[in-house]
Batch of 2 targets.
Target 1
Amino acid sequence: MTTEYTRAYWEKALAETTPKGGIYIDGKLTRAETGLTFTRIRPMDGKPGAEIARGGQADVDRAVASARKAFATGLWRKKDPSEKKKVMVRWAELIRKNADELALLETIDTGKPVMASLNVDARLAADCIQYYAEMCDKLYDEIAPTGPNDRALVRKVPLGVIGAITPWNYPMIIETWKLGPALAAGNSVVLKPAEQSSLTAIRLAELASEAGLPDGVFNVITGYGEEVGKALALHMDVDMIAFTGSTEVGKLIMGYAAQTNLKRVALELGGKSPLVVFADANLDAAASAVAWGCFYNSGETCHASTRLLAERGIVDALVAKIKDVTDREITLAHPLDPSTQIGALIEDAHLGKVLGMVDAGLREGAKRAFGGERVMAETGGYYVSPGVFIAPSNEASLARQEIFGPILTVIPFDTEEEAVRLANDTIYGLAGAVFTSDMSRAHRVSEDIQAGTVWINTYDMSTFATPFGGFKQSGFGRDRSVHAIDKYCDYKTIWQRFL
Ligand code: NAP
């Protein structure tokens, strides 16, 4: 029987749900050692959403010890690869089976439309685990060239205990980007989700146990970054931190690693991605790509196309088309309404930050084309309408700071050389795009934009086969694709002499 996803269906599910907010250690849901909790407020209506365990140093110590024990016993690490695959495939299937529940929990925490949580976030989380499950029995080691009396095996071995620290914008997606390759490689993981988005992390861990992942291989410690995240990143028995979040905290993580055991660090950080549109481009395609690229997920996307570099003569026409796409397609409404395309911002403080950045931009001389204002305040939730602003220059704060809200900044340019210079005039290098009908120019510009991903005449296309990550202060290391496995492994040479 297929479910009919109506607003009433989701309202009933919300009324019947009491989200679990414990920490998950050694295959069991438990309380923080101190017994402390904090209340997560729902962005959709400003009401209490869940009571979450406030983990601390003692909980991190317990989780790391459990992960280390699981690694040492080899119950997972040394498991027959085809058996490992079966466990991970079962886990992916359980995520699909429980997708409605996971989607609702994601929306309670983040305020994103529940149908996006279902059709995008939960679906991609399951697909990611499946993708890496399939890799378990398809990875080969190497034999290095040697003389006839020797054999040198070059083995790829798991690192040990991975600390994963994740943000709140796409919790399930980003967590499975780390869990999939780390676990397929044979590591144990201690995950610290963002304090704003703990609920799906806990359920993912329960479902992993149900699928047969041995106890201790995947633990979740909820709580604050300054407490749990810092304790994990400073821990002497953690071999690597796989981090996604802001550039500011990414720099702290590198410092923690340097101060302690030189643990590996992989950093997926912020962005201020340029989308360059030349006058010869298909403006309808460009407008659609800009609007969806910038406003999807209420702009809370690391690689959002937040800087539109438009050839001077087309600025007005392009902005008019962006407004048209936004009005017709990108419905801002209650997250439980199935027709909603964008929902609430993550929390009250973030709402204030986004509106404050807009005000500062206006004071500096930016011109509002449309939107960028608080709406639906009567719901008690944190909603901002998609907004477009013409910046006086690329020096303007709206063009430089990562706003992480549905705010597009437009900067006109006159020549190809200027477009490339402006595109690269940022500390970030996560993504970019170029729209033109001149393919020689498309390839020149895409080569010259310094970013981990550059799209030509489209935006935000990807599959699990394409690596994702940044250049410059957007970090280093790659999520997704077969290459993501490498960062959770080390090379070990075993040299044998034939006697
Ligand atoms: P954030 O403030 O940097 O937090 C990320 C994680 O780090 C959270 O779990 C946070 O915990 C934790 N944390 C905070 N302070 C810490 C500390 N001193 N030590 C250890 N951990 C600490 O980022 P966010 O606001 O959650 O997410 C938005 C940022 O993530 C944006 O900059 C966005 O561009 C970036 N992002 C990047 C990618 C990518 O793939 N490149 C993807 C998504 C998001 P608490 O939340 O509990 O404080």
Target 2
Amino acid sequence: MSRRKNMSNEAENTAHATGKDLGAPPILLTKKPTRARASAGGRTKTACIRTFGCQMNVHDSDRMRRMIRDAGYAEVLRYEDADLVVLNTCYVRENAVDRVRGHLGELNRLKKEGRVKKVALTGCIGAGQEARDLERAYGIDLVLGTHNTYELAQFVGLPGMEETFTPELPGTEGEHTAFVTIMTGCNYQCSYCVVPSVRGRMVCRPMENVLLEVRRLVESGTRYVTLLGQTVDAWREDGRRFCDLLQRVADIAPRVWFTTSHPSNMEDRTLRLIGQKDTLVKRLHLPVQSGSDRMLKIMHRGYKSERYRRKIEVFRDAVPDGTLSTDIIVGHPRETEGDHEETLKLVEDCSFDAAYVFKFSPRRGTEAAELPGTVPEEVAQRRFLEVLRAIEQSAFRRNRRKIGSVEEIYIRHGRTGEDGKAAVGETWSGHAVHVVTDAEPGRYVTAKIETAGPHVLYAGVPFGPPR
Ligand code: 5AD
Ligand code: SF4
């Protein structure tokens, strides 16, 4: 998806300095033929899955896609061609709920016309307080939260399952890239965040269970594994910490990344491991949210900006060629001009390579939604643009440093650029690169970086054939 489309997909409350994909159209992740064909009056049944929100949701959708495929459904891209539509939703910001309402209204109409038979609402909105209202208002057939996604299996006619994350049901077996969830939920209580109430407390998957899934994926041809969790670096089991698990995974899989981390859990040895281990992508996503200690306290983030800065120093020292990205919220209740200035200062000091900048959005049931000191919309908008501009400048400056270097590039998507010419790849430093090649996703090419924008690098013609 092009950068411009990606940005316009977003409501005005969010902007990304890199391409995090919210509310993307459904992607056919499995290219394998459907095993059995479920039939509806002699024809194959069809299903459409639409995903909103974060990578956790993309991954949950992969699992549901597997279930649907195993039940004999063929996947289609348009609602009007689908017997079953699954909306896998995000609840993090208010505009996400509004957008899902729009989709539900459309689906309700298609159902009345007899074109869509069943609608399932899953994901974070499914687990939230609004789910019952939506179910009634739009005649939804199945509502599932994030903890019981596995119940979809029975709904589509498969034998019942009892848990969602098992090596028996990897999301993307046989694909070049795969997500592996290592923990669910979150034990923090950030003032603004709805995740703890919709995803529950932290549950860590046993190490052996994770490693089994990674081994199977690698045997099935997966070349890039991303470990997932809301606070992935909080993973622990019997005295073992995230760094131990990461090391084991990086011994098995040829290319590994992880997201998303919490600064309070990020150990220095993990940062050093990123620099040392050649199968780890040298990119760290470490959300800071604000540069002001006063705001970090109000947000209950559990660290001060000095501690965050120190982590970044360790990272830059251990991984000199690495990329660093973050999340920042502007306009949280009680944020003053002084707090905002401190965020801008932190952005300057940390030289981020990318960031997701969010305007605060009050979420029902969170502490921040009840706090006095609301920041007026026009002030929040100005601060938002100021942070965004600072991030883009920093990203552009850092990206330009890569010009002239020769990079090994992992091809993530084939020629899908705006003009169909460039494939989208990723360097070991975690930079996104456009490169003109016919190489298949999952292959590597080597090429020289010729130019750079704030979001992406552009490489010349690769040297030699893809590997
Ligand atoms: N308003 C704005 N941004 C939010 N985020 C989470 N909750 C909110 C909210 N209520 C942002 C945080 C988090 C990212 C995934 O979404 O920056 O890190
Ligand atoms: Fe939400 Fe905070 Fe947990 Fe992240 S750490 S999921 S922002 S509560």
